[in-house]
């Protein structure tokens, strides 16, 4: 998963939990501005720890898996 995909997923998960940015930022103990930047993919200064805290507040965790095809989707992973 690319960093911008993590950003998109954080926003999707937050909305599925019916949380506002403010509510999730309070649960994660980070600023709403920082959360907004993360959701927009502005991840430049965001640490893995910050992402971990946010995902744990959403009842998810980071996972590591091997890359295939240098980050490109395989034929089985492509959606048409």
Q: Helix and strand layout, with pairings?
A:
Blueprint: H1 3-16, H2 21-28, H3 32-39, H4 48-57
Tell me what you see in this structure.
- By secondary structure, the chain is mostly helical.
- The chain is built from 4 helices and no strands.
- Helix 2 (about 20-30) crosses helix 3 (about 30-40) and helix 2 crosses helix 4.
- The longest helix is centred in the N-terminal third of the chain and has 14 residues, at about 5-15.
- The protein is globular.
- The chain starts with a helix and ends in a 23-residue tail after the last helix.
- The relative contact order is 0.16.
Amino-to-carboxy terminus distance: 19 Å
| Overall strand count | 0
N-to-C series of helices and strands: HHHH
> What gyration radius follows from the Cα positions, in whole Å?
14 Å
Mean pLDDT level: 81
Keywords for this structure?
80 residues, mainly alpha, 4 helices, 0% strand
Summarize the structure in short.
The chain is mainly α and about 80 residues long. It is about 50% helix and about 0% strand. The protein has helices spanning about 5-15, 20-30, 30-40, 50-55.
